[in-house]
């Protein structure tokens, strides 16, 4: 599968799709408090998607070799790295949770983004992990410009994370996105500068590092979806969808409620 370069109309459609995905997160943010379940979060997100006129890209999603995914979003709590399936377990003070939303617009465009949420007062280690993972994502995004290479993005993330004694999950990566959920290119969150695909205007892809407090080793749970840290250490992830522009980049998955970029972002 080759990389699809979006034209002006495609870029406009992706701006809308990604903003709508971010607005789902905006809508559910006030409700993500101690005592809520991840099933409640899923229901609230589904209700907001219905109001928008979008639908979930994950409900029923079934790549080869996987069972159909059974929820409207992914909720990955504490040591869950990604693809956590919403359930009826109550979130408690001290938990951290990644909520990952992908919507499909009526016109068939996919918008994808995720955020970390701290439930009540969390440990210093958990707060540090969430903050450093956020910075790592933005450091990767800051590398995006015409003529740069995907290895530059991955290297910036890896160097920063490992410099803070954190580890980068290798088995999952960012991806191109547009009128399909997952397109080329694959966007690794580790690598060597000056390697990989050259970035050109019109490319759209996600930057979504998964960073562990402990070792990078993973384990798949019996449900066929949930991925956890093998050593049960905490894991965090943030995700934005990014457009390569003629002069640099544009983050498409920003909304009124998005956390502000770090101070180092120009």
Summarize the structure.
This protein is an alpha+beta fold and 266 residues long. Helices cover 26% and strands 23% of the residues.
Structural overview:
- This protein is an alpha+beta fold.
- It has four helices and 15 strands.
- It has helices at 8-28, 38-52, 124-141, 150-163, and strands spanning 55-56, 74-77, 80-82, 96-104, 110-118, 167-168, 174-176, 183-187, 204-207, 210-212, 218-220, 227-229, 235-237, 240-244, 249-251.
- The strands form five sheets. Strands 1, 2, 4 and 5 form a four-stranded antiparallel β-sheet that branches. A three-stranded antiparallel β-sheet has the order 3-12-11, with no helix packed on it.
- Helix 1 packs across helix 2 (38-52) and helix 3 packs antiparallel against helix 4 (150-163).
Instruction: For the record, give the distance between the C-alpha atoms at the N and C termini, rounded to a whole number.
Output: 34 Å
Shape: globular
Let me know the average pLDDT. 97
Number of helices: 4
Q: Which range does the strand content fall in?
A: 15-25%
Structural class: alpha+beta
Low-pLDDT runs of 5+ residues are: none
Biggest β-sheet strands, sense, barrel: 4 strands, antiparallel
Extended strand count: 15
Q: Provide the succession of SSEs.
A: HHEEEEEHHEEEEEEEEEE
Share of helix among residues? 25-40%
Supply Rg.
17 Å
Structural descriptors:
single chain, 266 residues, alpha+beta, four-stranded antiparallel sheet, three-stranded antiparallel sheet, 15 strands, 23% strand
